[in-house]
Design brief:
Blueprint lengths: L4 H6 L3 H54 L4 H23 L1 H19 L19 E8 L8 E8 L4 E5 L6 H6 L9 E6 L2 E2 L5 H6 L1 E4 L8 E2 H6 L7 H10 L3 H6 L7 E2 L8 H13 L5 E5 L7 H14 L4 E6 L10 E4 L1
Parallel strand pairs: 3-10, 3-11, 6-9, 9-10
Antiparallel strand pairs: 1-2, 1-4, 4-5, 7-8
């Protein structure tokens, strides 16, 4: 993949990837050649059938005319009808190749359209005035039937509290917080907000009050301003700058010649990992959420900058409930409570 060219070069796997590409390319070439071979026989065959049919009709019709059992007008009419039918078949054959090529793509698209939503929307579509107490009651989750990623987790997070979650890689930290905005529903157990089961809440209403900064930072092609404003399209420039300052992003943004109008490449390739993470945090803050989930999103930020971000987040909103996921205990030392997974 072009996006992984640096990894390919770093591991000196250029020859391997070239061979893979040549293999796929050769396979595609062979399939295309076979398709063209079929079409090279099919199309002339249709043309031969049309011409042979016309000759046969004229030959046999001529015999019947000479015997007086058929009129010339009948032969002409029959020839016209037969020609129209055979030419229609020829037109159908001309789109046969395109149909075969598009069939594979159509089947893949159909698989996506027919995929069932793994999390049900909820029968009653309950609204939500605000994010109150979040309670996990013996929550377990498994991506398949063989292994549970989250097993019998219970805890309570009160409004305005900062909750830290730490654990080793693969312990299910990210999966656990993905259950709150209902990216998935628990396999068993219940998640409640102010006593209400979130499975019966309207997803859009629930997610409007939650901001998630994922572990893998994703920035869109466009300006820095557009990326931060993606959290709230109605946000003013002052609100965007305030969010950027809280995320410790205003400093390096101001150093760019075009400042907030600086254009970003695909995925933010012209920014460092730490800069992308800080813009992602600012995008979440400008949304003014009631629940902020930080999923190990300061891993590429130095310790002093991370400390300043934590302090500013505490002052950004007195009523902001925050769940911080980290692998290092130092990243959650300022949390009110810490859960170890």
């Amino acid at each position: 993949y072009l996006s992984g060219v640096r990894v390919v070069k770093a591991f000196n796997r250029s020859d391997y990837e070239n061979k893979r590409f040549e293999g796929f390319n050769e396979e595609l070439g062979n399939l295309s050649t076979r398709a063209m071979q079929v079409m090279s026989i099919f199309s002339p065959g249709i043309n031969f059938a049309i011409n042979a049919g016309i000759v046969s009709v004229l030959w046999i019709g001529g015999i019947y005319v000479s015997r007086g059992t058929m009129k010339v007008g009948q032969i002409i009419a029959f020839t016209n009808y037969m020609t129209q039918i055979l030419y229609s078949i020829m037109i159908i054959s001309s789109v046969f190749n395109t149909f075969v090529k598009s069939k594979a793509s159509a089947s893949r698209i159909s698989e996506v359209f027919e995929e069932e939503n793994s999390s049900s929307p909820g029968g009653s579509g309950l609204g939500l005035d605000k994010i109150g107490e979040i309670r996990f009651e013996n929550v377990s989750f498994a991506y398949d039937d063989n292994h549970r990623v989250v097993q019998n987790v219970s805890f309570t997070c009160t409004p305005g509290e900062t909750l830290g979650i730490i654990g080793s890689t693969g312990s299910g930290k990210s999966t656990l917080v993905s259950l709150i905005p209902r990216f998935y529903d628990p396999t068993c157990g219940t998640i409640r907000i102010d006593g209400l089961d979130i499975r019966y809440m309207d997803k859009k209403v629930l997610r409007d009050k939650i901001a998630l900064v994922p572990q893998k930072t994703l920035l869109f092609t466009g300006s820095i301003l557009e990326n931060i404003k993606w959290g709230d399209e109605n946000a003013s420039l002052e609100e965007i700058e305030e969010a950027a300052r809280a995320a410790e992003a205003d400093g390096f943004i101001s150093e760019f010649p075009e400042k907030y109008d600086t254009k970003l490449g695909q995925g933010g390739v012209n920014l460092s990992g730490g800069q992308k993470q800080r813009i992602s945090i600012a995008r979440a803050l400008v949304k003014k959420p009631e629940l902020l989930i930080l999923d190990d999103c300061t891993s590429a930020v130095d310790a002093s900058t991370e400390s300043r971000i934590r302090k500013k987040l505490g002052k950004y909103s007195d009523h902001l409930t925050c769940i911080v996921i980290a692998q290092k205990i130092a990243s959650v030392m300022s949390a009110d409570r810490i859960i170890v997974m």
